[in-house]
Each structure stands twice: as structure tokens, then as C-alpha cells.
Amino acid sequence: MNGNVIDGKAVAAKIREETAAKVAELKAKYGKVPGLAVVIVGERKDSQTYVRMKKKACEEVGIASFGADLPESATQAEVLAVVAAFNANPDVHGILVQLPLPKHIDEQAVLGAISVEKDVDGFHPLNIGRLAMKGREPLFTPCTPLGCMVLLERCGIPIKGRRAVVVGRSNIVGMPAALLLNKRDATVTVVHSATPKAEAEAICRQADIIIAAAGQAQLVRGSWVKPGAAIIDVGTNPIDDKTKASGYRLVGDAHFDECKAVAGAITPVPGGVGPMTIAILLRNTAESGERFLTGAVKVSGAEKKQERKGLAKLLPTREQLASPLPVLAAAVGVAAGAVLQRATAGRR
Ligand SMILES: Nc1nc2c(c(=O)[nH]1)N[C@@H](CN(C=O)c1ccc(C(=O)N[C@@H](CCC(=O)O)C(=O)O)cc1)CN2
Hints:
Blueprint: H1 8-30, E1 35-41, H2 45-61, E2 64-70, H3 76-88, E3 94-97, H4 107-113, H5 125-132, H6 143-154, E4 163-167, H7 174-183, E5 187-191, H8 197-204, E6 209-212, E7 230-233, E8 237-240, E9 248-251, H9 256-260, E10 265-266, H10 273-293, H11 303-314, H12 318-321, H13 326-347
The structure holds ligand LMY7XDAE.
Pfam families: THF_DHG_CYH, THF_DHG_CYH_C
Family: Belongs to the tetrahydrofolate dehydrogenase/cyclohydrolase family.
InterPro entries: Aminoacid_DH-like_N_sf (IPR046346), NAD(P)-bd_dom_sf (IPR036291), THF_DH/CycHdrlase (IPR000672), THF_DH/CycHdrlase_cat_dom (IPR020630), THF_DH/CycHdrlase_CS (IPR020867), THF_DH/CycHdrlase_NAD-bd_dom (IPR020631)
């Protein structure tokens, strides 16, 4: 921390260092390194930047990177074929499909087609379902929300029993962040686009921890913050800035100067959560590589059978199915649906 500003770059650098050591250890032991496949569809400039950053980061820690760049016009069948090829490639231990996808592609169908054991982004319905369940853990946790939790933990900010508010409910950040905070025993409230602004402000003002992930520049103002609260800002919004050569600068979903004056701790943008997203992706990929290389997860001709066995282990118990909690029931429904779909496909 510099004063009350959390240095995301420094924490991310430490995680990258730990990951590089793990990759070197695997290489020495098994003569192989973890491999990450990155799939991008279309020509969005921001997505291309993130994909470039991910490939460079892989190189820096010794992870092998694989890639597929598909044009904006790619069909869903083409995207699914690329995912299937990476699922079957034994040198690939992690697969991510850069989001967002073009509108004509069914995002959930693509994410659900990634082998659950290679889902280093943690967006597969089975991994999300397990994140929602008490007593279960996903194979992978989504990188940005996990990055937020690691920042809190490594900065010594307590979570258990604290009031946490998540601003935003996206599949990539808000929803999994709320599930994670709940798993770490915080008392969690989610405010979102349908929450009246005055109400969102009043709810945030009670929070010990705010995770701002609404995708709206400087939405969270100083008046929204309880003195001493921790603010983890996930937003990366470009706003006009004539003093910059590019003509713009990035700001978060929190008004940095106003919030910094009140908060006990705050992440900057850039240099806060962003670098953590990529560091956690590398860590998830190294963990996946280790599972495959140690034989904890198998890739072979019998892959389908293994996969079904793995999926069976992920099925909810009778007790979990009977849970009255609507969020749990919904997650179980999604997960069970996906299992049935996969198991049926395997029998065809
Ligand atoms: N398949 C995925 N798609 C997307 C994810 C994801 O986790 N998986 N997250 C975001 C984008 N993202 C990674 O993909 C990402 C965003 C921001 C950063 C980052 O390091 N930002 C820097 C600023 C970078 C700049 O100057 O442009 C920072 O905040 O310091 C990394 C990754 C959506 N899609």
C-alpha cells in the first residue's frame, strides 16, 4: 500500500513471480510446461490489447501460449470447433475465450463447451455453480473477482462478518464477486442498474467493503463511502483527456480523489485490479497444468469417460438439491442442466 492506495501492480508482480517458480518446478519434474489457449473473435481493440497482454504475460512466466484469432463473421459452429480442438489438445491445460463475443454468438453455449478441467476463466456453469454452493469449491474461480479477494487478503483487510456491497451484477465480475464474498463469510448486498441511485448510495454508505463493477465511470462518489471502508474498483472506463497524447485516460467506477479522501484503502485505475486479472489467469493456468501433469486430471483416448467421471463428482448432493436458498437452487439447476446436456452428448 502507498498510504491508503492499494498497489495492485506490486501484488500482481508477486503472484507472477510465484507462478514462474511453479512453472519452472513443473518443467524440471515433468519436462513439460502448462499451456494456455486464448480464443478471440472479432476486431475489438480493447479485446486485442488484453489478448496481447495475456500472451506476453504467459511468455514471461514460461507458460506456453496457443491462440486462435477468428474474424467477426465467424459462425458459432466455427467457434465451437476451435474450442473442441483445444479441449482435445493434450498440450493445452487452460482455455479462455475473450469476452465479449460478437452478438450473433451464444456466449453461454461457447463457455459451456470449454472442458470444465481447462476452464481457467472459471465461467463454465459447473464452476460457477460450485462457487455458489456451500461445502463445494470450483476447479477455477473467475480471475477478476478472485483478484479482488486476493488484494483484500494480502492487504490485511478483514472480510469475515463485514458488510460488503457489490455494485454491478455481471457474469464476469459482479455476480461471482458476490458469491466469493459470501463464501468468505461477508454479509453481501448487490446493487445494480435497477437499484434507485439514492438507495445504492445509502446501501454503499453502510459497507466496510465496496466492490465497484458497474462499468460506469466515477459512479461511486465520496458521499457513498463510510469513513475507513475499503474500495476495490474494477472499472476501466476511457474518458476524454486532451492533455494526453491518446486524447483519453482510464478512470474507474469510483471517483478516485473523492473516495480516496474518505476510504481506508482504495485501488487505483489503472494499476489496481487490472493487473490482478492477468496474474490470477497465469496462476489458474499453472494450477491446471499441475493437475494434468501430475495425473490428477487425465487426457487420453478415454478422455470422454474421464470427463464424465469428473462431472459426476461435481453433481450436487441430495442435501444441496433440497436447499431452500433460491440462489443455490438456481445455481444447482444451471449446473445439473449442463451435466445432463454433456452426459447426453457423450452417449450419442
Ligand atoms: N475471457 C475473459 N474476458 C474478459 C475478462 C476476463 O477475465 N476473461 N476480463 C475483461 C478484460 N480483461 C481481461 O480479459 C482485462 C482488463 C483489464 C486489464 C488491465 O490490466 N488493465 C490495466 C489497464 C490497461 C490499459 O491501459 O488498457 C489496469 O487496470 O491497470 C487486464 C485484463 C473483459 N473480458
